[in-house]
Design brief:
The chain has four domains: 2-52, N-terminal domain of TfIIb; 63-134 and 320-428, 3-Layer(aba) Sandwich (Rossmann fold); 136-301, Dimethylsulfoxide Reductase, domain 2 (3-Layer(aba) Sandwich), CATH 3.40.228; 463-575, Barwin-like endoglucanases, CATH 2.40.40.20. The chain contains 22 helices and 23 strands. Helix content is 33%, strand content 20%. Strands 5-4-15-14-13-6-7 form a seven-stranded mixed β-sheet. It is an alpha/beta fold. The termini are far apart. Helix 9 (209-222) crosses helix 11 (249-261). Bound molecules: iron/sulfur cluster. Iron/sulfur cluster binds at residues 8, 10-11, 13-15, 42-43, 45-46, 165-167, 476-477.
């Protein structure tokens, strides 16, 4: 028996994880020593990730559609079929009728392969299926690492960090209890597990995090202990903002005082998929707050996708387009063929229009670990290996680049995406280059602070009296109930689907009791969900799991202002 080390790529913390192996066969997980990243801790997702190896539902053999059915075949035959199908689309509709999409829980080599393929085919239509909050949050600016939390005597958390990035819970709890007077503040419309541990929980109205941060920043500046005030800080009415957020200015002043007075403080931003209006603005405010509050103040911005930082950097430097444009283009019939490299578009952005668009493509090739909606109509399906079955590298949070070695041979006839893509390019007779076409990064756009804050305020204030704000419960690395992690036994038991949380008062207002079936109406779908009565939410807010495809139908997946919206949806709830 041998031990091999790798990492978990289900979220950007990239925990070290070791495996017991016999030859090339992986027997099970092993714990890393305490000197490793995050002291050798992993959460259930990482621990049970081994289930993906030799999973009985893995796509084991290449499949080609003939007479409406998928038939097992060899890699060579499948690649020839894929190449012939794509060539036909190239001849009839041109290269830009072919879209290439990948997703961020994969290695830099796989992402690079996506770029090479798009360039070789000649299409500029290349996309990455980020969770909605990841793309606007990540910037070129380096964030601090876990040491910023460990050393802080004041930690301010926006989001439910203990659910989204669980291995950091220990650092946060220790930072609070290491010394008398240390503090932990949590901003979240839901009384989350993270909020349970807070010295003070700011239960803001859904979607108003940017306003709360602007108020804290203003209080820091007014304390006279921070740096100079940006001019826009004087342009908003703090009392009106506090009223919209549903927070007290004295609570805000207390947080600002603790933050600015701390020798070392950290602000941690871990947004859920939906529920925070204008995530890009919140991330900028988090960075500004850390800068204005002076020396020893750091910020930590945590994405959901494992290699989201690497994928964002690649997408921005190589001119990849926002995946919201792909969803729109598919629904409008702009694309005739799709090459999907591990992405599950329907589970990620579920609408009936997308469901129909995927099934009416002229040609589609899917590299995938499991069967999803696309595979039900795909022309060619190729089984992909997990990151544990190949060497790789990824850019994790705080700019840490991790590389790893294969822990086990690829299961059955699966191949890493990068290997499969190179073989597909050979079959197509096109040469791949070491990267996609590089475009200069977009010039920095000056942040319209006041206008964006006002848009957040108006969105929060415009929920009608008979409406409620719908927010998403986080579960990083589990972006859809049909996604890769949805096939892990532990995940499917730990992350139940088909429910909506509401307060007892809100439930009583619609005449419903715990366990009743609700119909949740949004502008996008009417979805039946089981009521879970909770004491964690205010009466004007409903929460649904972000990883539940059915619940995700309630959110708007339209391309607007260059990206998906990230704020809460407005819904009406009735008892069935
Ligand atoms: S999901 Fe994130 S926190 Fe959990 S083991 Fe994987 S990398 Fe670590």
């Amino acid at each position: 028996m041998d031990t091999r080390e790798s990492i978990c790529l289900f979220c950007p913390l990239g925990c070290d994880i070791a495996f017991r192996v016999r030859g090339d066969e992986v027997i099970g997980p092993e714990f890393c020593g305490p000197a490793e990243t995050h002291a050798g801790r992993v959460c259930g997702r990482g621990l049970y990730g081994t289930e993906l190896l030799n999973h009985p539902q893995r796509i084991a053999t290449p499949l080609v559609r003939k007479d409406g059915r998928l038939h097992e075949t060899s890699w060579d035959t499948a690649l020839e079929a894929a190449a012939a199908g794509l060539r036909k689309v190239l001849e009839t509709s041109g290269p830009d009728a072919i879209a290439v999409v990948t997703e961020p829980n994969r290695s830099l080599a796989d992402l690079g392969a996506a770029s090479r393929l798009a360039q070789a085919v000649g299409t500029g239509e290349i996309f990455c299926a980020f969770e909605p909050q990841d793309w606007p949050m990540l910037s070129d600016e380096a964030d601090a690492g876990v040491s910023a939390i460990e050393e802080a005597s004041c930690v301010l958390v926006i989001g439910d960090l203990f659910a989204s990035h669980p291995v950091l819970a220990k650092e946060v709890i220790e930072a609070k209890y290491t010394a008398r007077g240390n503090s932990l503040f949590v901003i979240d419309p839901r009384r989350s597990n993270t909020a349970w541990y807070a010295s003070s929980h700011v239960q803001n109205r859904a979607g108003t995090e940017a306003l709360v941060l602007a108020l804290i920043l203003k209080a820091v500046v007014e304390s006279g202990k921070g740096g100079s005030a940006p001019a826009w800080l004087n342009e908003f009415d703090a009392d009106a903002f506090a009223g919209t957020c549903g927070v007290s200015r004295s609570d805000i002043a207390r947080i600002a005082r603790s933050f600015v007075d701390a020798e070392k403080a950290a602000v941690v931003f871990a947004p859920p998929a939906r529920g925070v209006s204008d995530v890009g603005l919140v991330a900028s405010l988090v960075r500004l707050l850390a800068g204005v509050a002076g020396q020893g103040k750091e910020c930590v911005c945590l994405a959901a996708g494992g290699n989201s930082r690497g994928a964002t950097a690649m997408a921005r430097s190589e001119g990849w387009k926002p995946v919201s444009e792909l969803v729109e283009g598919l629904c409008s019939g702009k694309y005739r063929a799709l090459v999907s490299l591990g992405a599950d578009l329907y589970e990620s952005y579920p609408t009936e229009a997308l469901r129909g668009a995927l099934s009416s493509l002229d040609y589609s090739v899917s590299f995938s670990m499991f069967h999803g909606l696309l595979e039900q109509s795909a022309s060619v399906v190729l089984g992909e290996s997990s990151w544990l079955e190949s060497d790789g590298a990824a850019e994790l949070y705080a700019g840490r680049v991790a590389d790893w070695k294969t822990v086990g041979r690829p299961s059955w006839a699966t191949r890493p995406v990068a290997v499969g893509v190179d073989a597909l390019m050979s079959a197509l007779g096109v040469a791949g280059q070491s990267g996609g076409k590089r475009v200069s990064a977009a010039a920095a756009v000056e942040m319209q602070w006041s206008a964006r804050l006002e848009a957040v305020r108006q969105a929060a204030a415009s929920v009608p009296a008979d409406g409620m704000s719908l927010v998403a419960l986080p579960a990083a690395g589990h972006s859809g109930s049909g996604s890769v992690t949805g096939h892990i036994n532990w995940a499917s038991q730990m992350f139940p689907t088909g429910f909506a949380e509401m307060s007892a008062e809100a439930a009583a207002a619609v005449g419903a009791r715990d366990g009743d079936t609700l119909v949740v109406h949004s502008g996008n779908a009417d979805v039946e969900l089981t009521l879970k009565v909770t004491d964690r939410l205010a009466q004007d807010t409903v929460a649904v799991p972000a990883y539940d495809t059915k619940a995700r139908q309630l959110f708007d997946w339209a391309h607007k202002d260059g990206w998906f919206g990230t704020g809460p949806a407005v819904v009406r709830v009735s008892r069935k």
